[in-house]
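Let's practice the habit of predicting before peeking. Look at the sequence and jot down your guess about where helices and strands might fall. Then scroll down.
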Amino acid sequence: MTYKVGILGATGAVGQEIIHLLHERKFPFSELRLLASSRSAGKVQEYQGNSWTIEETNQSSFKDLDFCIFSAGGGQSKTFAPIAKEAGCIVIDNSSAFRMDPSVPLVVPEINPEAALTHQGIIANPNCTTAISLMGLFPLHKAFGLKSLIACTYQAVSGSGAEALQELDDQLMAWSKGKNIPPKVYPHPIAFNVIPHVDDFNDDGFTREEMKLLHESRKIMDLDDLMVNCTCVRVPVRRAHSIAITASFENAIDLSVAKEAIKAFPNVELIDNPQQLEYPMPINYSGVSSCALGRMRKTEILPNGLSFWVTGDQLWKGAALNAIQIAELLISRNSAS
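Done guessing? Here is the structure:
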């Protein structure tokens, strides 16, 4: 069986990765409809000898589609997701528009696949930092019972889009010539710098990005009492996010059990041999489907504490790949029923 698939936001960074991954994973599509704003309408997108004309998104864009992956921001999602749903299209949304809506499942297929089956036409993809963090946290939660966590993120500039990547490149080139280029995308220079500021600040001093890890983790893992303290930091890395996590668990930590839990969990690799300088790094997990976990050690700073480092491609597991996995999950469950 084949499916008609749309991509809203097809010209963006995530949209381009969706096109690539649909082909790489041999997703069974018979039609691919690329949707974007009026600025991009009429342009031709080519990939592996195929070509598509970008269409301007409108109320009739979703007719006859089986799935549409939205990657065009919350405003577009709020406008067009109900229209797509009404047209009988299943929406898989990468924005934050519906993540905390009680009627919309928030899904990481390795963690809560059953939630996807309860959808009413819209399924939300989690924030990239949440998805990558939980790929490490969830198997440990199943082994020991997660209570709380402290996280510090190291977020790549590609999470801010193509203009941010260009800004990093331009600043590095300017520095090599003894020049200086003032920032535009970020409030401060990103080259040779780290910026402890991702998303807008709330009145309590936390950013919206930091609070996403709390609220989304609670929903995905069904842990209403989970406590999270997060600091999000932008670093001069092109691609793939990393997160340093110290977590507290209900039960005592056995490192051998913890490592086996990671090894047994799908799409996570254990790279934890620091004596041989082996640990996850973003340079090794850019354009890679799996996430990786390492630097695992017990800590006394929290009860039954465990610290570790997790890395993953935020454009893939944090967005495009996770969305496609959700569609694949729905297809496999329909085939099995």
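How did you do? The first strand starts at residue 3 and ends at 8.
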